[in-house]
Amino acid sequence: MAACAGWYNEEGVEVMEQETVAALRPRSFGEHALEIQVTFRPAKNAKSVKLGKTNFGFLAVRLAKSVSAYFGGGVISNSEGQVDEINIFGKPARWMDYSGPVAVGEGRSRKSVTEGITFFDHPSNPRYPTSWHVREDGWMGASFCMHEGLEVTHEKPLTLRYLLHAHRGGHNRAKAEGVAEEFGRRRGFEVYKSKRKHRQYEVKRK
User: Fold this and answer.
1) pLDDT digits over 67-111, tens only?
2) pLDDT given for residue 37 in this prediction
3) How far is Cα 136 from Cα 157, in angstroms, rounded to an integer?
4) What is the pLDDT confidence band of residue 123, given thresholds at 50, 70 and 90?
5) Residue among 136, 130, 113 at smallest CA distance from 62
6) Which residues, listed in sequence order, are joined to residue 50 by a DSSP beta bridge?
7) d(CA 17, CA 131)
8) Which string of DSSP letters, residue by residue, matches 40-84?
9) Contact 41, 152 (CB under 8 A)
10) For the chain, where are the alpha helices, taking DSSP H only?
11) Residue 153's beta-bridge partner residues?
12) pLDDT in tens, 24-36
């Protein structure tokens, strides 16, 4: 899936364009991976756009209450072997994992199992490995502008690539290393004007 959206100021003037490509990739054992690529450019009539310093990035996940470390029985961990919000918040890491108990099934077959999401930063991203805005209440996000802002121009647009791996069981470091390596080798997406009939744009790997 690909979409183009605009960011507008309080006067209704477009200041930035966002191109998003998302690809859902089924994996073995009923697991899934959602690959997301976002590209930011100034609006057509603007020379540049300034991204301010903030803890909130361009992609985040809100986990179910039962998975959160505070309200449920979840565990936050990262690629560097650190655990819990106090040790992880604001720190750089190649990936972040949030895993915990979720209820599955219905009636008498209803039971609790452990599942989670591993959030990967791509090696081609600026400021890799990213800092993370992750909290014990169930919030997990890549924080690109946590320590400083960035000016985006037409000559230097900002492209960020992320992967969300929805997995069974708790955080498995060996599995995460394999997914990270696979994601790191994979080429990004390109959106281009289609030459085929009844199609405006198409998406392909670079």
Assistant:
1) 999 999 999 999 999 999 999 999 999 999 999 999 999 999 999
2) 98
3) 33
4) very high
5) 136
6) 151
7) 24
8) EEE-TT-SEEEEPP-S--SEEEE--TTTSTTTSS-EEEETTS-BS
9) yes
10) 85-88, 173-185
11) 48
12) 999 998 999 999 9
- 65-93 in b/e form (b: 16+ CB < 10 A) is eebbbeebebbbbbbeeeeebeebbebbb
User: For residue 53, what are its two tokens?
Assistant: 């310093």
Cβ pair 90, 82 in contact under 8 A: no
DSSP state of 170: S
* The amino acid at 23: A
Which helix (H) or strand (E) segment is 97 a member of? strand 95-104
Q: Tell me, what's the pLDDT at 165?
A: 98
Query: How much is the pTM?
Result: 0.94
Q: What is the mean pLDDT of the chain?
A: 96
Residue 138 is encoded by which pair of tokens? Answer: 């169930």
**Closest to 138 measured CA to CA, from 60, 56, 65, 58:** 65
Quick one: average pLDDT of 152-165?
Answer: 98
